[in-house]
Amino acid sequence: MGGKKKFSFVSVILSVICVVFVCEAAAPAAAIGNQQFFWWIFLIITFLLPYGMVAAELGTAYGENVEHSAKAELHAALDALEQF
User: Fold this and answer.
1) pLDDT per residue as tens digits for the range 18-68
2) Residues 6+ away with beta carbon under 8 Å from 32
3) How wide is the angle at C-alpha 34 spanned by C-alphas 31 and 39, nearest 5°?
4) SS3 content of the chain, % helix, strand, coil (to 5)
5) What distance in Å separates the CA atoms of residue 28 and residue 72, rounded to the nearest whole number?
6) CA 29 to CA 50: how far, in whole Å?
7) SS3 25
8) Dist CA 46 CA 79 (whole Å)
9) Which of 4, 12, 36, 82 shows a CA-CA span of 20 to 30 A to 42?
10) Which of 46, 54, 7 is nearest to 25 (CA)?
């Protein structure tokens, strides 16, 4: 499992598609009355819990490199704004 890890563009697109379909399915579930509570709990367990686990895995997989590069990009953008 060595080598450079990356979150590809295809993965981003598929994640967005999944989010749209889950949000689209939540509205009809809310329209059915008290059963909406079951569906919200079901959606939380089947979507948000795995989503949180994926986010945690990405956070540990990329570690400090992402944090340092993000800070460097932020500082570069702020420096460019200061020169404006």
Assistant:
1) 887 777 776 776 677 777 778 778 877 888 888 888 887 877 776 666 556
2) 39
3) 70
4) 85, 0, 15
5) 44
6) 20
7) helix
8) 43
9) 12
10) 46
Q: Which token pair is 44?
A: 């939380």
pLDDT at 32: 76
| CA-wise closest residue to 46 among 12, 21, 63 | 21
DSSP label at residue 53: H
Question: What is the total residue count of the chain?
Answer: 84
Which regions of 1-84 does DSSP assign to beta strands (E)?
none
* CB-based contacts of 7, cutoff 8 Å, min separation 6: 58
pTM score above 0.70: no
Tell me the backbone φ, ψ of residue 5, rounded to 5 degrees: -100, 145
